[in-house]
């Protein structure tokens, strides 16, 4: 089973973790200044060394993926929306079947190595990323500066080139009206926290991404440790808020079960509405209030209600209107499995 | 209301166009809006230029007066500091040395420090060769020179100029 459908450590609050390393190849300009033959050199070299890296990794040229497949990768958080739209003929991804390793080629930097896990798994992910990075550095010369460390196109990544992120589900902090204060507290600690879906005014589905800002003048170990500490604090606060909510007894049960009722009985439903309802249904399941679901089903609901993943599951490209109908059908399917 | 373009789906986007004071309004479904290229209502902020603005504001303050007087330019990729301010990204590794002064202040502002203390690569991988057009041209040149010499050699032998032939043969040997 792929990592994003699995249940991980503390995944009632920490949905998933990601470690990302940005790297460039010595002697070749960064992607934005690359000539076609330079992009091609990077592309060919990476394609050539894939079997030497191991981990069941495969090289896939982005131009061989259709729009739907690219969007599905974005929905699974494996590549960025900008990269999915890339027209560069030498853009590629290196990915394994489990999809817990995804290396993008010729995005902003030549190489973006990413590893993923469900739940809170920062040390293990960090070790895996370092292991792959060490294999890569035997095969390709990295652009490294004795003062500035690993050089990246954007100065916000320079030094370690490391961004560690956790994706958290914070419905109780939201319901209890504490989320804004909480967000600014985390920002003050030198971390960035932002809603993953929706706009700045409302984080749809109460899902927030927390990641490190500082990448230079700090060791990889410290970055990981800081993120872990923050995650544990977040976990603690959200759990406290959840505990407070459960004291409300029937009021909370009523709210969560009503949302479950709409989710499971709707005949057509938009992506946004599904996201909001799934958030509360997940909360209800995690608190043991809603007993009709389990963690895998929640993960499936979260994935297959997204447009491209839904279309791929149904097996054809759907218009927005068709999506709303099929989304309601797929939700019923998952619930009755 | 049905979409005025396909007349099938429910319209959920109202698009208003004003050209030379003539106002036209049309109701569209999201599918048609996408086809017509007007679906991007949630216009994404160009993060790079946003960063660039930040760097620019920063550059204009008293911290970096040197930037207004001399325009630094990276010889490797042709990037100027102004280009960086516009795009938010550097062009190549060498930029980090060329713009080292402003970068130091920039990194201190962004990260609190400008000195890397993490790990570094241990591998000694060989540099990549970019097969560029110039290389191929050169190859062609040497190829044609070789052909020319071979022709000369044949001619020299025919004309029994053995001294010349030996010279050409040596030259050819050197090329191999």
Notes on the protein architecture:
Chain A has 337 residues and is α+β, with helices and mostly antiparallel strands. Chain A has two domains: 3-242, Glutamine synthetase/guanido kinase, catalytic domain (Creatine Kinase, Chain A, domain 2, 2-Layer Sandwich), CATH 3.30.590; 250-336, no CATH class. In chain A, 47% of the residues lie in helices and 16% in strands. Chain A contains twelve helices and ten strands. In chain A, a hairpin with a 3-residue loop joins strand 6 and strand 7. In chain A, helix 8 crosses helix 9 (271-286) and helix 10 (295-304) runs antiparallel to helix 12 (320-336). The two termini of chain A are 16 Å apart. Chain B is 49% helix and 8% strand. Chain B has helices at residues 30-35, 47-60, 66-69, 81-87, 95-98, 100-111, 133-158, 162-175, and strands at 13-19, 22-28. Chain B has a two-stranded antiparallel sheet. The longest helix of chain B is centred in the last third of the chain and has 26 residues, at 133-158. The N and C termini of chain B lie far apart (78 Å). Residues 41-45, 60-69 and 133-140 of chain B have low confidence and may be disordered. At the A-B interface, helix 1, helix 4, strand 6 and strand 7 of A face helix 6 of B.
Summarize this structure as a short list of keywords or feature phrases.
heterodimer; A: 337 residues; Creatine Kinase, Chain A, domain 2; 2 domains; eight-stranded antiparallel beta sheet; two-stranded antiparallel sheet; 12 helices; 16% strand; globular; B: 176 residues; mainly alpha; 8 helices; 2 strands
Task: Give a topology summary.
The complex is a heterodimer of chains A (337) and B (176).
Chain A: E1 14-23, H1 36-53, E2 58-61, H2 67-75, H3 81-84, E3 92-95, E4 101-105, E5 111-118, H4 122-139, E6 144-145, E7 149-150, E8 162-169, H5 171-175, H6 179-188, E9 191-195, E10 207-212, H7 220-246, H8 250-265, H9 271-286, H10 295-304, H11 307-314, H12 320-336
Helix pairs in contact in A: 2-11, 8-9, 9-10, 10-12, 11-12
Chain B: E1 13-19, E2 22-28, H1 30-35, H2 47-60, H3 66-69, H4 81-87, H5 95-98, H6 100-111, H7 133-158, H8 162-175
Antiparallel strand pairs in B: 1-2
Helix pairs in contact in B: 2-4, 7-8
């Amino acid at each position: 089973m792929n990592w994003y459908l699995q249940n991980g450590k503390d995944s009632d609050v920490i949905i998933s973790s990601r470690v990302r390393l940005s790297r460039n190849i010595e002697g070749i300009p960064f992607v934005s200044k690359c000539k076609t033959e330079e992009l091609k050199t990077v592309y060919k070299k990476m394609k050539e060394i894939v079997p030497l890296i191991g981990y069941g990794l495969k090289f896939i040229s982005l131009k061989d993926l259709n729009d739907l497949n690219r969007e599905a990768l974005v929905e699974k958080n494996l590549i960025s929306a900008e990269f999915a739209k890339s027209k560069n003929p030498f853009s590629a991804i290196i990915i394994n079947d489990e999809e817990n390793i995804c290396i993008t080629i010729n995005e902003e930097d030549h190489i973006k190595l990413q590893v993923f896990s469900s739940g809170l798994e920062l040390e293990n992910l960090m070790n895996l990323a370092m292991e792959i990075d060490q294999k890569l550095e035997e095969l390709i010369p990295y652009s490294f500066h004795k003062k500035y460390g690993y050089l990246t196109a954007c100065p916000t990544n320079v030094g370690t080139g490391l961004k560690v992120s956790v994706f958290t589900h914070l419905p109780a902090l939201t319901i209890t009206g504490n989320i804004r204060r909480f967000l600014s507290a985390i920002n003050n600690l030198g971390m960035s926290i932002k809603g993953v879906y929706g706009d700045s005014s409302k984080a749809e589905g109460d899902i927030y991404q927390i990641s490190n800002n500082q990448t230079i003048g700090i060791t990889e170990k410290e970055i990981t440790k800081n993120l872990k500490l923050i995650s544990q604090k977040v976990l603690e606060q959200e759990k406290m808020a959840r505990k407070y909510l459960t004291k409300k007894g029937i009021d909370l049960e009523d709210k969560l079960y009503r949302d479950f009722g709409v989710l499971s009985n709707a005949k057509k439903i938009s992506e946004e509405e599904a996201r909001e309802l799934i958030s509360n249904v997940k909360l209800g399941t995690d608190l043991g209030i809603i007993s009709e679901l389990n963690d895998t089903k929640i993960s499936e609901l979260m994935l297959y209600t997204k447009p491209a993943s839904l279309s791929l599951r149904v097996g054809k490209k759907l218009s927005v209107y068709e999506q709303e109908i099929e989304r309601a059908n797929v939700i019923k399917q998952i619930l009755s499995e | 209301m049905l979409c005025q373009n396909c007349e099938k789906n429910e319209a959920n986007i109202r698009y208003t166009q004003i050209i030379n004071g003539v106002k036209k309004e049309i109701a569209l479904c999201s599918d048609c809006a996408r086809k017509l290229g007007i679906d991007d209502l949630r216009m994404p902020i160009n993060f790079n230029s946003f960063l660039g603005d930040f760097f620019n504001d920063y550059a204009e303050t008293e911290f970096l007066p040197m930037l207004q007087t001399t325009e630094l330019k990276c010889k490797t990729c042709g990037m100027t500091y102004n280009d960086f301010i516009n795009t938010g990204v550097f062009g190549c590794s060498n930029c980090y040395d060329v713009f080292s002064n402003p970068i130091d202040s920039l990194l201190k502002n962004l990260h609190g420090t400008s000195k890397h203390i993490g790990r570094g690569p241990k591998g000694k991988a060989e540099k990549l060769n970019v097969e560029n057009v110039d290389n191929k041209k050169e190859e062609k040149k040497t190829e044609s020179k070789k052909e020319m010499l071979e022709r000369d050699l044949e001619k020299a032998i025919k004309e029994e100029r053995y001294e010349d032939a030996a010279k050409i043969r040596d030259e050819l040997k050197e090329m191999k």
